[in-house]
Amino acid sequence: MQQVFCDWGTSSLRGYLLDDSKIIQKYSSDLGLLKAQKIGYEKVLDSVLDSFQCEHDIPIYFSGMIGSKQGWAEAPYVPTPVGIEQMKGKTIKPAKNIHIIGGVSHLDGSGNYDVMRGEEVQVFGVLEQEPATSLICLPGSHSKWVKIEAGQIKIFATWMTGELFKALSENTIFSTQLESKEFNHEAFIQGVGFAREHHDLGSSLFKLRIEYLFERSDKHHFYSYLSGFLIASEIREAIGVAKKVSLCGSDSLMNSYALALEVFGVESKQFPSETATIRGIEKICGENNE
Predict the structure, then answer these.
(1) Tens digits of residue pLDDT in 122-156
(2) 120: how many CB neighbours lie within 10 A of its CB?
(3) Which is the CATH superfamily of the domain at 159-272?
């Protein structure tokens, strides 16, 4: 039986046409919510289905920001602790053949909320492959660190590392000291080391400028140096006493995080986000896949 799974975020849309759980076609574009709102969600979906040359009435499953208040229809947040069974009851159907998976919310001991949409699907996709994992990191624009207990999302927190990196490298004084975006292993490790020694992010960022002024870093390698510094700053705050982490994301980001984690003496195992998304949607919506 054919089905369509989509990870529909704020700035991107990734779709998969499956036949008996096997991917037979893929779709990827920048038609995330910001652009799709102007075009119309139905029209964007039609273009995805047309690219697959499939029937428009086959089962379709969405995860991500498409289920937010700004999306096609709002799918409710499920409060932690949350497992597969709780997620199954929180999908909504804005159309007969369309299912949108809800997000997850967490209220910490200080009374502060955190939320995720899309990452929860990947978390359950990782757990399907690695049931014993207790800590999952999903690096990205807004990186999530998720603690697992008894197969449930127990606690999670968010770091805006990817978005901060983009803002700093493109819109601050650091943009004048960036000449190449080519990854440099040595510079990245140096940035990781600097973050491990300097724990105050605000003041440490200016020290990166001083490092450049006194020629301890250079334009050719500063992109990697800044990346290593920010990723390590996130890891230092998030890792706690853990000695093993499951990573789920793009290959390039997982490789960078794995390299930084190694410096911290932490073992990591990688799970591509595409596979985790598909396995997670199948797990959450399995009994509805008809």
Answers:
(1) 999 999 999 999 999 999 999 999 999 999 999 99
(2) 28
(3) 2-keto-3-deoxy-galactonokinase, C-terminal domain (3.30.420.310)
Instruction: Please state whether beta strands 60-63 and 98-100 pair in parallel, antiparallel, or not at all (unpaired).
Output: parallel
Closest CA to 288 of 116, 93, 121: 93
164 contacts 230 by C-beta, under 8 angstroms? yes
Q: Which residues, 6+ apart, have CB-to-CB distance to 167 below 8 Å?
A: none
HSE-CB at 168 with a 13 A cutoff on CA atoms is 22
Residue 68 to residue 203: CA distance in whole angstroms: 35
For the chain, the maximum distance between any two Cα atoms, rounded to a whole number of angstroms, is 64
Pure H helices in the chain: 33-39, 41-52, 84-88, 119-129, 161-171, 185-197, 201-213, 222-238, 251-263, 273-285
At 214, which amino acid appears?
F
- What is the pTM (predicted TM-score) of this model? 0.94
Residue 97 burial (CB count, 10 A): 14
Domain range annotation of the chain: 159-272
Q: Please state, in angstroms and rounded to a whole number, the distance separating the CA atoms of residues 106 and 51.
A: 38
pLDDT range class, residue 88, cuts 50, 70, 90: confident
